[in-house]
Amino acid sequence: MIYGIGTDICDIRRIAEALQRRGDRFAEKVLGPDELQVFRARRARSDTRGIRYLATRFSAKEAFSKAIGLGLHLPMRMPDCQILNEASGKPMLKLSGALAGWWAERGLSGQVTLSDESDYAVSFVVVETTKA
Predict the structure, then answer these.
(1) Would the annotation count 105 as a binding residue?
(2) Domain 2-129 sits in which CATH superfamily?
(3) How do the domains of the chain map onto residue ranges?
(4) Which among 29, 63, 90, 92 is placed 20 to 30 Å from 110, CA to CA?
């Protein structure tokens, strides 16, 4: 049964500006440890690729927070909701901290998809529950 659905569109230029203003502190507030590794590796190869990665993850976390109905209120913290990729490239959720416990208590599972084009990143999240 569907628990919640969330979607978000993000202007990549805004993410680039925030990163320029606040430096890596901005990325560290948004990304979890595994995501930070990917971000830094992509940014080392191409600043644009790093910024696009950060923007898609920011968008996905916004969509996720809407799907679970919490917005950006505890236990939802952006670094505790990581959007990683399976070997096939499929995006997946990896939750930690209090958010992981909250998620497990409710018997939730989720699917996430994200994309970017030109100046925008877009994400869609569907959260389901196995509990009646």
Answers:
(1) no
(2) 4'-phosphopantetheinyl transferase domain (3.90.470.20)
(3) 2-129
(4) 29
